[in-house]
Design goal:
By secondary structure, this protein is mostly helical. The chain has 1 helix and no strands. The longest helix has 132 residues. The N and C termini lie far apart (190 Å).
């Protein structure tokens, strides 16, 4: 039986050596995986920083565009009010011109009537002169 015991001991030692080798390989693989994870984490952190910087830049740019758009909209509102006021004034002036035009037409009509009366009076004066002379 000692032979069987030695064989079992040899098998056990061999199994122990294999187990130790597997443990060493597992430790080595674990170390490699940890190193890869550290590298990946570093790359992810760097990518996060880059994206964060890009987002901050884009946000600021969008904010600037929004501020400019609001300023432009405000300026356009001011211009619109000014143009509306000018239009109102022009309409009032147009009404005044129309009113004055009506007055001018009336005056021209009165002037024409007076001119017609003057001509008639001249005819009457001529007729009266002619009668007085005859």
């Amino acid at each position: 039986m000692p032979l069987g015991f030695e064989a079992d001991m040899g098998d056990l030692l061999w199994a122990k050596v294999e187990q130790k080798q597997r443990a060493i390989m597992s430790d080595e693989n674990l170390r490699k995986v940890k190193l890869q994870n550290v590298n990946t984490a570093g790359k992810l952190q760097e990518e996060f920083r880059r994206l964060s910087t890009e987002m901050t830049s884009a946000f600021k740019e969008n904010e600037n565009v929004a501020v400019k758009a609001m300023d432009e909209a405000h300026q356009l509102q001011i211009e619109k009010r000014h143009l509306e006021e000018m239009l109102k004034e022009l309409k009032e002036m147009e009404q005044q011109i129309e009113h004055h035009g009506d007055k001018i037409e009336k005056l021209e009509s009165r002037n024409q009537n007076l001119e017609d009366e003057r001509k008639n009076l001249e005819k009457v004066v001529r007729l009266v002169k002619m009668e007085l002379e005859s």
